[in-house]
Design a protein that fits this description.
The chain is 30% helix and 20% strand. Helix 16 runs antiparallel to helix 17. It is globular, with a radius of gyration of 23 Å. The N terminus is likely disordered.
């Protein structure tokens, strides 16, 4: 999932704000009001499960919608499905018995809502960016290619409360995918009513999850999530209202936490460094990687492997984290982050296994960077490169861009980097249209398997916005999904080969794995954080 979560926030006034902050508690979180105030680093861009692409929108959709499953911490738990389903027919058929549930407008949630939602998502007319995750469901690839109609997708409503999915072949991680919003049910009547306006503001939405979105008009910098009385598990929703504010500056976030107006503040820079000793501090290690995409369409020289490798070696990731982020993030050695998945045979971490033979490609080495750069320019028939680095308009992105710009222009003779800092929605539009030279990107796990990262860099994936392409890489990813889908040990080795190839080629340039620094009011309990890096407020309580 594409992210706009690069946290390099202003340190202005941090010493003053930190003084006395250890005793700050949000006064608005009392048992009677049962409200929780938190922040995001940007605005919601879409509430349409078929069209949303960023983590901020995904959190809001997770709060207000319900799919077959829901993560409670690392545990996959039944949502609208009554149980975690075991497939039949050699792993190709999943039959879900659904709970009795309602939409917030009183309509029943039915198996047909899942059929409709899944067909709508995969329909090329919808232009969803997540259709590639439907690969493996019967006829999905043919539908995406325009060879078959969405109605032929391998999904059906056996009755009002029985939803069945048929796969072309077993998908070992299929259940873990179903907690994600792009597999949620959708209300056909509501979507027909609002048409293109559906999901663009709160008044065009209908909810079937724990909360109902309020006071969001499509560009709002704050919004509320109010308890949904029709949610099937409403008795477990103890927090009556969640107030969310988009804050792009750490000083502002710290101020609001100190004054009791925020219960959960995201900080970075000097604030994060000093806050680590505070009792309210919490570092959330995310299965998320921030990286650079190099656009091979707008700058053909980026097709040269030596030039890509030179850019990687010019960056001192450890220095950047220590001096700029200061939040405990980890220098990335590959696309797939630490802690996502373990070897089914040895129990070793996927990232660390791959890095054993590829970590040298992300080391800081200015002499090597200069040599590779010089050789790469010569091979490309270039004497210099002038490019534009696309970033968000938050303080974090701007400071990150400053560091990258300085590092590359200092280490690589003839490299000129202009910076374009734009709002999140504009950035998304430019990424998908290919309007950039370099792009500061982020990817967060959609489910706990390496394929959720590695799939993004196949040649025809919509999230491979730099257009890096490697036939062997594509072959390995396809084999992991088909030939070796039911052979865990062999599948693991194929995925390792893919990660190694991607890292060697620097098809994307990994920067860091996020550890997001928070100050969190200790009055809350039972709020869990899942492997897809979203909060689950079901079961959470305020003391």
């Amino acid at each position: 999932m594409s992210l706009k979560k690069w946290v390099v926030l202003s340190a202005a006034g941090s010493a003053l704000l930190l003084a006395g902050c250890q005793n700050a508690k949000a006064d608005n979180t009392n048992a009677a009001g049962a409200t929780w105030s938190r922040m995001e680093k940007d605005n919601i861009t879409s509430m349409d499960p078929s069209k949303a692409v960023d983590g901020i929108s995904a959190q809001a959709i997770t709060d207000t919608m319900e799919g077959l499953y829901r993560y409670g911490g690392t545990d996959l738990q039944p949502g609208l499905a009554k149980s975690i389903v075991k497939p039949t027919h050699q792993g190709t058929v999943y039959t879900f018995k659904l709970r009795s549930a309602k939409w917030s407008n009183g309509d029943p949630v039915t198996a047909q809502d899942f059929v409709y939602g899944w067909r709508r998502t995969i329909d090329p007319k919808t232009k969803s960016q997540y259709t590639y995750l439907y690969t493996g469901i019967k006829n999905a690839d043919a539908i995406m290619a325009g060879k078959k109609k969405p109605a032929t997708l391998g999904v059906k409503a056996l009755d009002q409360h029985t939803f069945q999915v048929t796969l072309d072949h077993p998908i070992p991680y299929f259940n873990t995918m179903l907690a994600s919003f792009f597999f949620y049910p959708e209300n056909a009547k509501v979507i027909a009513k609002y048409g293109k306006q559906y999901g663009t503001k709160a008044s065009t939405l209908v909810s079937n999850g724990p909360y109902i979105l309020k006071n969001w008009n499509g560009s709002s910098t704050s919004w509320q999530e109010v308890k949904n009385p029709t949610y099937w598990n409403a008795k477990k929703v103890h927090i009556k209202q969640i107030n969310v504010t988009a804050i792009k500056d750490a000083s502002t976030a710290m101020n609001l936490f100190q004054s009791g107006k925020l219960d959960d503040a995201i900080i970075s820079g000097d604030q994060a460094a000093q806050a680590k000793a505070m009792p309210d501090y919490k570092g959330l290690k995310q299965t998320a990687t921030t990286y650079l995409q190099l656009n091979e369409k707008t700058e053909p020289a980026f097709k040269n492997t030596k030039i890509r490798q030179a850019i990687s070696h010019a960056l001192d990731r450890d220095e950047f984290i220590k001096k700029v982020l200061q939040n405990g993030s980890v220098a990335a050695t590959g696309f797939t982050p630490i802690g996502l998945a373990k070897d089914p045979t040895t129990g070793k971490d996927f990232n660390q296994e791959a890095a054993a033979t590829t970590k040298q490609y992300s080391t800081h080495d200015t002499a090597l960077a200069k040599k590779l750069w010089t050789d790469g320019l010569a091979e490309s028939g270039k004497k210099s490169i002038t490019t534009t680095l696309l970033v968000g308009d938050g303080t974090s992105d701007k400071k990150t861009a400053e560091y990258i710009q300085n590092a590359l222009e200092t280490a690589l003779p003839g490299m000129h980097v202009n910076v374009s800092a734009v709002p999140a929605k504009t950035k998304q539009d430019r990424e998908f249209s290919g309007d950039f030279g370099m792009d500061l990107s982020g990817w967060i796990a959609d489910f706990p398997d390496p394929i959720t990262f590695l799939d993004c860099m196949t040649s025809d994936n919509t999230y491979n916005q730099g257009k890096w392409s490697n036939a062997q890489y594509d072959k390995l990813i396809k084999e992991s999904k088909t030939t070796y889908a039911t052979q865990p040990a062999k599948r693991w080795q194929v995925l390792l080969q893919a990660q190694k190839l991607l890292t060697q080629e620097q098809g994307m340039i990994p920067l860091y794995q996020t550890v997001e620094a928070h100050l969190v009011n200790k009055k809350i309990s039972g709020m869990t954080y899942g492997p897809t890096n979203y909060y689950n407020f079901v079961g959470a309580k305020i003391k």
